[in-house]
Model the fold of this input.
Amino acid sequence: MRIIYTLILLLLLCSTVPAQSEKQKSDIRTAVMSVLEAQAAAWNRGDIEGYMAGYWNSDRLVFVSADNITRGWTPTLERYKRGYDTREKMGSLKFGDVSIEVISKDTAVVLGSWSLTRANDNPKGKFTVIFRKFKEGWRIVHDHTS
Done:
């Protein structure tokens, strides 16, 4: 009997959660991709603050790279400014192989690759970012880059 009640409860819970249409998912993917494109454009102009506009401006932002964890928008901005203090170090940024998984109406996970084209080298790697939708738009809340 408990199993039947549990199944009924699960069915009721599932039926009250509105399913997202493919159009809604497509709109979310487009919005998230627009943030990434704006970040790359800002980076390629040498505008680190503009690049950081794609991140959640919060002390709860998490940025992971190599064996370092940076918490907070301002410390992440300072980290970028220290590491990329000249246009030569910044190079030209390109994102590729981007896959956007819509989790809910306000959450998406993005997997992709990044590459920098610079005069003396061409570093590259992978990233996984979690986006959340806020009143100001879609923002990265967690970034794990290798």
About this structure: Residues 66 and 146 are 6 Å apart (CA to CA). The first helix runs from residue 2 to 16. The chain has one domain: 20-145.
